[in-house]
Amino acid sequence: MVNTESNIKFSIKVLFAEDVFGEFSKFNGVVEVDRKNFEGTANFEIDISSISTNYDFDYKDLIRGEMFFDIKNFKKATLQTKDFLINRDNTAQAFAELKIKGIGEDLKIPLDYRLVNENRTEAKGTFIFKRTNFGIGSGIWSNTWILKDDVKVDVNIVLKKFK
Fold first, then answer.
1. Domain count along the chain
2. What is the pLDDT of residues 36-95, one digit of tens each?
3. Could you write out the DSSP letters of every residue in 100-117?
4. Of 139, 58, 138, 134, which Cα lies nearest the Cα of 151?
5. CA-wise closest residue to 6 among 122, 99, 96, 129
6. CATH code at 140?
7. Which helix (H) or strand (E) holds 58?
8. How many CB atoms lie within 10 A of CB 15?
9. Percent of the chain that is helix, strand, coil (3-state, to 5)
10. Residue 82 is assigned to a structural domain of this protein
């Protein structure tokens, strides 16, 4: 189960301006690991309305509106693993479907993890997806010349064992 020590942050390059930096403050998930067979599953749900960015002062309504996340119609994004491989060198690969605005795309997410103790594990990873594949930035914002297409996502997940 994810706790408040975890975070999901993202960035998008912008031509001739400050890059977009943001994060989602509300999300939850469950990770199940079979240590014996070095496999597992992970499923997360992200509350899109919990988004905050360095552009919120000027573009808060635009970012939450139909042209970008369309929060009225798509409140949640999900990440569900299809395969989750754990390596002996404290790395893992999640083969997952990311779904935003009802559109799904398969991703490979490399992770590094650290077993802190029997009840706590920390996992970190970075992956990139194309915002236009999910309709994030429609109309004039679908052009990727100024607001670039690659969204870099950094995850830092602290997992605590269910009792």
1. 1
2. 776 778 899 999 999 999 999 999 999 999 999 999 999 999 999 988 888 889 999 999
3. ETTEEEEEEEEEEEEEEE
4. 134
5. 122
6. 2.40.128.110
7. helix 56-64
8. 10
9. 10, 60, 30
10. yes
